[in-house]
Amino acid sequence: MAFAGQNWKERTNWDELCSYATELNHGLCCHLLPDLTNGLHHVARVLEFEDGSRWLARIQMAASTKTTAAKLQNEIDAMMLIRERTRIPVPRVFGYRIDDNHSIGCAFSLTEFLPGNVATDFNGGYATHQGQIPAQHRKNFYRSVARIHVQMASLRFHKIGTIVRAEDGSYTVGPFTDIGGPFDTATDFFEAWADYAKFPLSPDKIRKSMQGGPVEEVLTSILEFPSTVRAMAHQLSSSDQGPFPVVHADFFHSNIIVDQGYNILGVIDWEGACTVPWELVEFPLFLEIVPRPMDAPWNYDDENGQPLDEGTRLRWQERSEYTQMVAEAEKSELTDSKLSETLADQRAQNLAYALRVYRNPGKLGFYTKIFQKEELKDEQAE
């Protein structure tokens, strides 16, 4: 049982965790391997059973709250949905507790242990390759991610919100922990987002961080963005009444486990998985770019509109190639072309990026310019 003020080290009863795992695994005794891996919100540790099999214990570092409990339950439910209805490799969930009110003393999950490593950490890690997939593995890796992306987007519901698994094993959609819901239409979602949205930096901090330049223009754009979204909410989606696709909230290669050949072994960290309007479906985050309307105009060639930065030009090319890979995967999966069409829709991609980075981490940019027709026309022409 946890007590107020204890940190996760004091709260966690590892012996009780092992006993619980043994009970779940047909009485097989287990022991804890010594290494712990710390993330931003969780600690991971491997349990090894007497038959040599391994599970992964993922311990929540913060004391549980109503919000964290809901998020963990939604994550577990989403993982079960993905395992049951797609071929996406997701670790099997053996057991979990969503709060601290039990003998183990912390919120946790016990899942299948996947060998390999996350794609960002192979070949020397970020210090060596800055998070880039090695060139010789890149296309095969992207193609595999595209197949996963298509399967994920093929899971669709008639409401927008978090994934909820009912007692009978069926799935429905529940509210977000911040903006509420579930929402019947994309319009309802965008209006709720606009009412809740708050930029994390104060005007004074924005002015200090920019130190000159078009400060007032950027500040005005940031402050006016939520009200602009609300005013245009009914115009933002071409599929206002759905059905709406499932997305992974952090679809980055730090959450994709691979072997040394960059073959995908699993997709992890499904916290925040939910259904969203199609206009918020993005590329994997390792293909992220700042939309040109939001970016500084001097970062682009005046004559051809191309980015001056070589890395950004390459990213534009890779996004185009990835969209084609998605289209090929859609044909292979015998599904519609909704995902590839969304990725090719620059208006949708601009909106998705802007809504994602506005609240967290609060990136500076010309937010309201994504709605200006002349900006969109110029960008699509390129």
TrEMBL record:
Organism: Thermothelomyces thermophilus (strain ATCC 42464 / BCRC 31852 / DSM 1799) (Sporotrichum thermophile)
Aminoglycoside phosphotransferase domain segment(s): 51-275
Record-linked Pfam families: APH (PF01636)
Protein name: Aminoglycoside phosphotransferase domain-containing protein
Entries under PANTHER family matching the protein: AMINOGLYCOSIDE PHOSPHOTRANSFERASE DOMAIN-CONTAINING PROTEIN, AMINOGLYCOSIDE PHOSPHOTRANSFERASE-RELATED-RELATED
